[in-house]
């Protein structure tokens, strides 16, 4: 237990220092843009494809049940609520963990074992400001942006399956979606995604920054980073849902 609390303390201090340097001695703008581009733009296709088929699956699963009660037009509302409140932020976060979080840990971990981080300190640069701060900002801003795209793709996937494949009335599909969903349903998912992005990048950077044990240690740190981030996203999702909704 003492070891666990020690690791939590180190991770918290590293994150707080990174936030401190955001206001005290922020890195150049190009470092933020580079990390945001890597996290956001290059992850967009993965998120869009995942969300598109997720929305389609929701429509596919709910059609048979609603068809028994002649309520197929409610599929649009179910897809929008499911994606906006839950699936879009969680799926986006898990995709970012798999693609970006693991890469962050591996990159920073490799810099640690090859003594590049030590070289930054010798040059008078604080590695927490140079390496951690831009990534945390990029995660906090990038994951909500990806979640918006995930919502759009998921709703489109549900629309295609319901309207084009099953022949649901398109007018009722959109009207019931507008009637039964509110802006708060989507904003709640955005709030979740902001927190998820912060957690993902903070955990990924922590495991990379304190990597040890050579190349084998990089692999171990990357695995621990992915597992820990995924668990924290799913655990915090429960509490955020209870608070927001």
Brief description of this entry?
This protein has nine helices and no strands. It is mainly α.
Topology at a glance:
Elements: H1 2-24, H2 29-41, H3 44-68, H4 75-113, H5 116-122, H6 127-165, H7 170-180, H8 183-209, H9 214-244
Notable traits:
245 residues; mainly alpha; 0% strand
Task: Explain the overall architecture.
The protein is mostly helical and 245 residues long. It has one domain (7-244). Helix content is 88%, strand content 0%. The protein is built from nine helices and no strands. It has helices spanning 2-24, 29-41, 44-68, 75-113, 116-122, 127-165, 170-180, 183-209, 214-244.
- Beta-strand content bin: under 5%
Summarize the main sheet.
none
The end-to-end span amounts to 33 Å
The count of DSSP E runs of length 2 or more, i.e. the number of strands, is 0
Q: How much is the average pLDDT?
A: 90
Considering DSSP H and I runs of 4 or more, what fraction of the residues is helical? Answer: over 70%
Identify low-pLDDT runs: none
* Element order: H for helix, E for strand: HHHHHHHHH
**Approximate shape:** elongated
Number of helices: 9
The count of domains is 1
The assigned structural class equals: mainly alpha
| Rg from alpha-carbon coordinates | 21 Å
């Amino acid at each position: 237990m003492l070891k666990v609390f020690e690791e939590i303390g180190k991770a918290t201090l590293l994150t707080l220092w990174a936030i401190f340097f955001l206001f005290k001695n922020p890195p150049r703008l190009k470092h933020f843009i580079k990390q945001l581009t890597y996290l956001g733009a290059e992850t967009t296709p993965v998120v869009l494809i995942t969300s598109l088929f997720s929305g389609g699956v929701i429509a596919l699963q709910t059609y048979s049940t609603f068809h028994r009660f002649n309520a197929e037009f409610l599929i649009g509302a179910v897809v929008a609520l499911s994606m906006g409140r839950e699936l879009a932020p969680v799926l986006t976060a898990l995709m970012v963990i798999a693609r970006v979080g693991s890469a962050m840990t591996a990159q920073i971990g490799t810099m640690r074992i090859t003594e590049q981080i030590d070289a930054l300190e010798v040059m008078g640069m604080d590695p927490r400001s140079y390496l951690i701060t831009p990534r945390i900002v990029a995660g906090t801003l990038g994951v909500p942006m990806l979640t918006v795209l995930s919502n759009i793709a998921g709703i489109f996937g549900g629309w295609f399956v319901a309207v084009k494949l099953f022949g649901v009335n398109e007018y009722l599909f959109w009207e019931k979606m507008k009637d039964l969903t509110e802006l708060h349903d989507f904003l709640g998912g955005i709030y979740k995604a902001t927190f998820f992005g912060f957690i993902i990048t903070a955990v990924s950077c922590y495991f990379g920054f304190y990597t040890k044990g050579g190349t084998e240690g990089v692999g171990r740190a990357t695995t621990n980073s992915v597992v820990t981030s995924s668990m924290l996203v799913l655990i915090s999702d429960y509490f955020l849902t209870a608070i927001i909704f």
